[in-house]
Specification:
mainly beta, six-stranded antiparallel beta sheet, 5% helix, five-stranded mixed beta sheet, disordered N terminus
Length: 318
């Protein structure tokens, strides 16, 4: 018997004895046991062709999902990883998808990033995963304006450290649908905020909780240099250090006795912070002004002194 034939059964036995670690970790949505989470893109998105690389053109907002992971082969504890773009798929041209996890952007193709959560030996691990998914302008803009023909894109798979599972029914995957509605348009509308800092007239100290203490006006003006028609959505998004939304009011960090609401000048209905609304339909070239009102409302007995709060105006083109 040759040496090769004599060693072959030993090698086969050794391989058979190794645990199948490439797909030992199984993860599901809890309690549904689903392995597919699908996030619709929503309305069609029109992206100005001249925006710089890295510009966020869509973001899912905070996502929170309950996860259950277990080690099918009971080989021990193993960290759960985001495997980004597990299929190594080409999403299209001029765009890239990523995950924002613990304020860190995660991108790549079949790249893995640790979640900080671990499976347990001979048991099930339960945890809540908080993240968001975003689409950014990236690379050369397509000449025909169509970013992608892909309708559904698999953003990530939850899996173990060594390799992706070969059994898709065992691992949680996150998809974005409606990707083929992203198109590029020839120009970027210019936004001007007037005034750039809103100052409230000095309110009376005779406070009545819920009453308007002071009012100030401001405007969002848009100028468009191309004739392509599109709709602009906007939102007043909170920002770090700019205050917190409590009971629908933006409450300054340095004075919680007051809160701020924002509405269109002609309306009495506040616009919820961090929610999208239709700002304007722009049919051709030109400029248009959108007037808004900021109301300062009492939340408690007055606390003398200045206060500061801030929001970011986000725009979405459709």
């Amino acid at each position: 018997m040759s040496l090769t034939k004599r060693l072959l059964p030993i090698l086969l036995w050794g391989c058979a004895a190794l645990p199948a670690t490439s797909y030992a970790l199984a993860c599901y949505e809890d309690p549904s046991m689903s392995v597919a989470v699908k996030q619709p893109l929503g309305a069609a998105i029109a992206v100005p062709a001249d925006v710089p690389n890295g510009t966020i053109i869509w973001e899912s907002g905070p996502q929170s999902i309950n996860v259950m992971c277990e080690d099918d082969y009971k080989t021990g504890s193993e960290q759960v990883y985001f495997w980004v773009n597990p299929a190594k798929a080409t999403v299209g041209q001029g765009i890239r998808l990523g995950i924002r996890y613990k304020n860190t952007p995660l991108t790549g193709s079949a790249e893995k990033y640790g979640t900080g959560f671990y499976s347990v030996k001979k048991g099930k691990a339960y945890f809540t995963l908080n993240y968001s998914v975003y689409i950014e302008k990236y690379g050369t803009t397509p000449t025909n304006g169509q970013a992608t023909t892909v309708s559904e894109y698999r953003v990530f798979q939850l899996d173990g450290v060594r390799a992706l599972s070969s059994r898709p029914e065992k691992n949680l995957n996150y998809y974005v649908t409606g990707m083929n509605t992203i198109t590029f348009m020839p120009c970027l509308p210019e936004l001007t905020i007037t005034p750039s800092v809103v100052n409230f007239p000095t309110p009376s100290r005779k406070a009545q909780i819920g009453a308007v203490a002071s009012t100030a006006n401001f405007a969002l003006s848009l100028r468009k240099s191309c004739s392509t028609p599109f709709t602009i959505d906007a939102r007043f998004a909170t920002t770090a250090g700019g205050g917190s939304v409590i009971d629908g009011l933006l409450v300054p960090d340095n004075n919680s006795s007051v809160g701020i609401s924002v509405s269109r000048a002609e309306s009495q209905t506040p616009l919820p912070f961090n929610n999208w609304f239709t700002l304007q339909q722009l049919m051709g070239k030109g400029s248009i002004q959108n007037d808004f009102r900021a109301d300062l409302k009492w939340r408690s007995a007055p606390v003398p002194g200045p206060f500061e709060a801030a929001v970011v105006v986000d725009m979405l083109y459709k």
